[in-house]
From TrEMBL:
Transmembrane segments: none annotated. Residues 13-129 form the MaoC-like domain. The lineage of its organism: Bacteria, Pseudomonadati, Pseudomonadota, Alphaproteobacteria, Hyphomicrobiales. This is MaoC family dehydratase. PANTHER family: MAOC-LIKE DEHYDRATASE DOMAIN-CONTAINING PROTEIN. It holds the Pfam family MaoC_dehydratas.
Length: 162
């Protein structure tokens, strides 16, 4: 996939996997910092000794919302940039599921399949992706979701043949 594409090219990519991110290691420092930022210090995330003794996971696990939040960097690093884009916005998620816990020290990556692209208004493109977050060497994904984003562009760049 090219690093940059034209707005006109987007509709031809519907149905295709258009990005796979690099692996990201989810370590205890990252988990603790996320817990501090969100005020979620549940022991299964932040207390390795207690989590090993009292949880079924054998140690600490990442917050599900930490995994979800990493989609931004996964998206930015793996999806082609749309040349005409002036701004991108999150619109929302559908069918978000946390399938398997991400154990501390594991690596995860995002996979993005474009399932829908439609123009809205004079200068807006709505895109929907089927997103999967893989855990390295595990069968079940950490997360699956449908993610809708908005690409804003100058109306003068709207393709005539869309």
């Amino acid at each position: 996939m090219p690093h940059e594409i034209s707005l006109r090219d987007v509709k031809d990519l519907v149905g295709q996997e258009i990005g796979v991110s690099d692996w990201i290691t989810v370590d205890q420092t990252m988990i603790n910092q996320f817990g501090d930022a969100t005020l979620d210090h549940q022991f299964i995330h932040t207390d390795p000794v207690r989590a090993a003794a009292e949880s079924p996971f054998g140690g600490t696990i990442a917050h599900g919302f930490l995994t979800l939040s990493l989609l931004s960097v996964m998206n930015f690093g793996s999806l082609p940039r749309i040349r005409e884009q002036t701004m991108g916005l999150n619109y929302g998620f559908d069918k978000l599921r946390f399938g398997s816990p991400v154990r501390t020290g594991r690596r995860i990556r995002g996979r993005f399949t474009l399932t829908e692209a439609r123009l809205r208004g004079a200068g807006m493109l709505m895109t929907t992706y089927d997103v999967t977050v893989d855990i390295e060497n595990e069968r079940k994904p950490a997360l699956t979701a449908q993610w809708t984003t908005i690409v804003q562009f100058d109306p003068k760049d709207r393709p005539d043949d869309w």
